[in-house]
Design brief:
The complex is a heterodimer. Chain A is of the alpha/beta class. Chain A is about 30% helix and about 20% strand. The chains are: A alpha/beta, B alpha/beta.
Chain lengths: ~160, ~425
């Protein structure tokens, strides 16, 4: 699975309250959630983001609440992957469960907003042609790739039960 | 062979030796949702084609975050949850009963339990020695259906406590101090395990407050050993039979050990907009505070309200500072009325809010205005958390919040004692 898009860059400790403020937790439509994605820190994000774009951020991305709405909003906004040195543990698990690739590496710090990145999910490699660099994240185990490729845990379970 | 507390609990539950780093499938003794993450859990449960709960008697739906509902969308979510409880036989904890984590401590969790909650502060029950952790909605939907979940056995940090807290210094000051030391991601995925002779000097409500905020350093669980105080707490809540003694083995393998002498701690606050931005309260004197918010799963217990009442007694709130008090459960509200604390709050010019999450997460009952500051006893001060990205949230002990309500600015509570 190849993911290709422009970088949106954020700082450290991007928490779930800025990714999706609590007042929107009653929303269930993914498209509506997408409209408020990153609203707490970057109110124009949803109008700028293009399908396949990539978020690059500092450590502890997704800290705070267990709200699965946060990765759902990011995925629905069109984001193809998130790259950060570390993720908060609940967010990491939620992202996999809803089929949003998240890659852990501290090699991507030099990336700037607007850079074009290409992610090879099976290998965990992140190519930055404009800087002629490749950043390496730990590749996913197969079981997690299967969940991501299915589109999330719900779709994965539906496929498994359907067999 | 020696085990950390996390390894020991997961070993008891899975019937095999568990070591940090391994992935195990563990049975869930209690699986719960609340009204912000719960509707998505219900929808995921249905979408996966599940119809039955593995263990309806140990499945709980709490209506606490938007309760009573501030808008129709949440009221409709409550309907969805009520319907789900009816059709599956799960237990519904209705509007006004209180915050899920307080009710889990009062009525459900015990030492050695594995608690799966659709809320990051599920870690609270670690104060009773339960391996309690927060999960997302999809994971909780699966745990509901299968009665189990996968867990990566966390490596552990030992927080070795000695001494006892001094007057005007509380468990909230302890945990804020610790988060300041560790950083907001300093314990990501770890089990924060509390030990040492100082543990015996912390009450169970103190321990619940400390465990509650383990997640603010990224931890998977915040675990206390169970002891006579745990047994007494369970007996007081009619659940003495759930008591088992549990502690880490001497010599267990810890990635990191931090020693904290409780007797030298001072009142602290976390400054906007991260919980690890901790500073002594003394240096922040004279920061104006437009709202003092006392309540939540980490600041609204009876012991907290007792300290608040002792600071407020015979005084009036500052005219420019609103004083909001939300007892964490119906039982606490009732006990606080009996003890006279509610009367004291009202006479001081305060407002009593219904048991529930109240102003904590910016939905209702205390949203901040532009440029306003709040001294809150809650567990998060993230940008926009209280409903306005132009507000400023300081976190401190209930006594510190009460002191700010009186003076109108951040104040060392010991000056009013």
């Amino acid at each position: 699975m190849r993911i290709k898009g422009k970088v949106h860059k954020y700082g450290d400790n991007i928490d779930t309250d800025v990714i999706l403020p609590g007042k929107y937790l009653s929303l269930s439509d993914a498209g509506e959630l997408a409209r408020h994605c990153m609203e707490g820190i970057d109110p124009d994000f949803s109008s700028r983001v293009k399908s396949g774009d990539i978020i690059v951020a500092g450590p502890n991305f997704g800290s705070g609440s267990s709200r699965e709405h946060a990765p759902v909003a990011i995925k629905a906004a069109g984001v193809g992957a998130i790259i950060a040195p570390s993720f908060a543990r609940i967010f990491f698990r939620n992202a996999i469960n809803i089929g949003l690739p998240v890659l852990e590496t501290d090699e991507a710090d030099e990336v700037e907003a607007g850079d074009l990145l290409e992610v090879d999910l099976e290998k965990g490699s992140i190519i930055n042609p404009s800087r002629n660099r490749v950043y390496q994240a730990a590749p996913y185990p197969h079981a997690m790739l299967d969940i991501i490729f299915a589109g999330g845990l719900v779709e994965y379970t539906q496929q498994r039960l359907g067999k | 062979m020696v085990f950390t507390l996390a390894e020991k609990i997961l070993g008891l539950k899975t019937g095999k030796e568990c070591r940090g780093g391994e992935i195990v499938i563990a049975p869930a003794d209690l699986v719960f949702i609340q009204d912000t993450t719960g509707p998505l859990t219900v929808r995921q449960f249905d979408a996966m084609g599940f119809t039955k709960l593995a263990n309806p008697k140990r499945s709980v739906l709490f209506l606490d975050h938007a309760a009573p509902c501030p808008q129709k969308e949440f009221a409709n979510d409550h309907q969805l949850m009520r319907d789900f409880a009816r059709r599956t036989g799960a237990f519904l904890s209705d509007v006004g009963e209180g915050v899920c984590h307080q009710l889990v401590a009062e009525s459900w969790a015990g030492p050695g339990d594995i608690v799966v909650g659709a809320d990051s502060h599920t870690v609270t029950a670690g104060g009773l020695g339960a391996f309690a952790s927060g999960f997302g909605s999809s994971d909780v939907a699966v745990a509901w259906a299968l009665g189990k979940t996968w867990i990566r056995v966390p490596e552990s940090f030992l927080i070795n406590l000695s001494g006892s807290l001094t007057r005007g210094v509380y468990s909230k000051d302890l945990i804020l101090h610790l988060i300041g030391l560790l950083g907001a991601d300093g314990a990501t995925y770890k089990s924060l395990e509390f030990g040492g002779e100082g543990v015996g000097n912390l009450s169970v409500p103190d321990r619940l407050t400390v465990s509650n905020m383990a997640i603010e350093a990224g931890a998977k669980v915040g675990l206390f050993p169970s002891d006579d105080l745990t047994r007494e707490y369970l007996e007081d809540h009619g659940r003495g039979e759930q008591y088992i003694p549990l502690s880490a083995d001497p010599g267990a393998a810890y990635e990191r050990v931090l020693d904290i002498d409780l007797s030298v701690l001072e009142p602290v606050v976390a400054r906007p907009h991260t919980v690890d931005n901790v500073a002594p309260i003394r240096g922040l004197d004279n920061t104006p505070v437009e709202q003092a918010f006392i309540g939540t799963c980490t600041g609204g217990r009876l012991e907290d309200l007792a300290e608040v009442a002792s600071v407020l007694k015979g005084k009036q709130r500052h005219p420019d500072t609103r004083l909001l008090v939300a007892p964490a459960s119906r039982q606490i509200l009732s006990d606080a009325i009996q003890a006279g604390y509610v009367q004291t709050v009202i006479e001081a010019g305060g407002i009593i809010l219904p048991p529930g999450c109240a102003a904590c997460l910016g939905m209702h009952q205390g949203v901040l205005g532009d440029g306003e500051s709040c001294l809150s006893t809650a567990n998060r001060n993230f940008l926009g958390r209280m409903g306005n990205p132009n507000g400023f949230i300081f976190l401190g002990s209930p006594a510190s919040a009460a002191a700010a309500a009186i003076t109108g600015h951040i104040t060392d509570p010991r000056e009013l004692m």
